[in-house]
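Notebook entry, structure prediction.
Reason for the run: the old model in the group folder had no record of what sequence produced it. Starting over properly, with the input documented here first.
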Amino acid sequence: MIRLMLVDDEPLAVNYLADALLELEVFEVEIVKAYSALEALQKLGEGKVDILLTDIRMPGMSGMELADHVRGQWPRCRIIFLTGYDDFGYAQSAIRKGGIDYILKTEGDEAIIRAIHLALDDIAKELDREDILKKSREQLHVAVPSLQRDYLLQLAQGEVDAFDVRIRRFAELNIGLDAGLPVQIALGRIDEWGSFVLPGDKALLYYSVQNIAEEYLQMTLNFTAFPYDRGRFVWLVQSRVAGEGGPEEEQLGKRLVGHFELIQNATKSLLKVPISLILAAAPCRWEDVPARVESLKIQLAGGASNGQEILMSELPEAGGEERRSSRDFFAENDLRAYLRNLDLLETYLDNGEREACRSLFAELDAKASALSTGQEGDFLRLELVSNLTTFLITYVNKRRLASLVSTAFRLEALIGLPVHADLSSTVRQLAALAESLAEYNGQKRAERTTDMIGRIQHYVNKFLNEELSLTKLSELVHLSPPYLSRMYKQETGQGLLEYITEVRMIRSKQLLRTTDHKVQEIAALVGIDSAAYFTRLFKKETGATPQEYRESAAK
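New structure, fully documented this time:
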């Protein structure tokens, strides 16, 4: 919704122009009227101003000064200056102030309409999709390092894209590795933070360690790094020799261990910080990165008794313990990745989306059913149930919904749900709780929406002769004007301004039938300043002028 402010110290000029614009119905704008620059400043705090159409010469404060104030709060506001003086000096000043146009009042309505069209076109161009995309592309390189880290962290945590998608994302984010070749992984840990104790210092330390690593590795290897959590980081390395399995790949591990020793020494001497490193036994496929990172985390945690400045290679699986099947690994990985969608569940619950909740739980049930039988599978199912239960209890506590839950779901049941053979039943019980929460929230949202519409309609009927702009009504229900406009039409099937006009016509008919008020008096009583505009609007809505309606009603 475009907001246009009309400012002139001649009320007749403001009202006439506002009526003319409303009658033309060529602009989807909200018109705000002010009869002085000082009044315009007061209304400036009520919301944004997209276009300012102002007289230049006004008592107290000129239009030029007003333009400075408006631009101070809304730098993108388009300004159109009106004046009755054909003064070239004013025109020059208007251009310097960034005015869209400079119009003599004697030029008539058509010139003003053209100027507003130009302003609207300028706003549209600024918001042009291609222009936005172009600016985004120009700014993307600034955000690339952060986007790289986010993408690689998600990959390391189990969200591995399909091959073609991964190839495209690597290219888009300029990740200096080959998404189609195996990658060598190393996991690092900050053993002591030293003087890097503040959050900003810790980020600086991560970058400093990464820069040291790059100095030693990037001359002969492709290398990238990202923080994994508060104390650990991941390094990804590939040989620059095409292919895999050759002598270069066989020697890669030995070369890296030598480099890592140098990097450890450098971080200790330059940054006064000890770090530990563990290197994967061999390069792996990108699909296997999450499992390798998990293995490295576990082994580094128990790597040596002193616990500092560890430098080790990944150990083989413990003797006698069979390596998990790829099916078990992918089932576990898939489950954990999907559990990270619980932030979506929170949105579904808040929005009252029962079907979306049901679909999410059905997907979780399917993934849990793919887990293996036996002790490991049981513990993974316990992890699933614990995560869901904790999430729902936290949600209930944060939203103060304990009384609602306690009437439909025993608290003891939440901590005693079975995780073995009856897992599907357990998931269904938790899904039922989630759906009941979503249903409750949906009803409350509907009630709040109905209440807001009722309050707006009551206000319109009670204060019909006062200002009923979208901005004023939106303040009543604490919503933005554009959202209020969309919400009202979506819920009632009628635009809010259409409803206000309908109420005005109903009240006007009543006054014409039951009183002897003059037409201009009735116009004022229903909130329309101009009797001429009221007459035109009344005829448009009813097919008759106010006087014709009064005469026909008296027969």
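Summary: The longest strand covers residues 232-239.
The old model has been moved to the deprecated folder.
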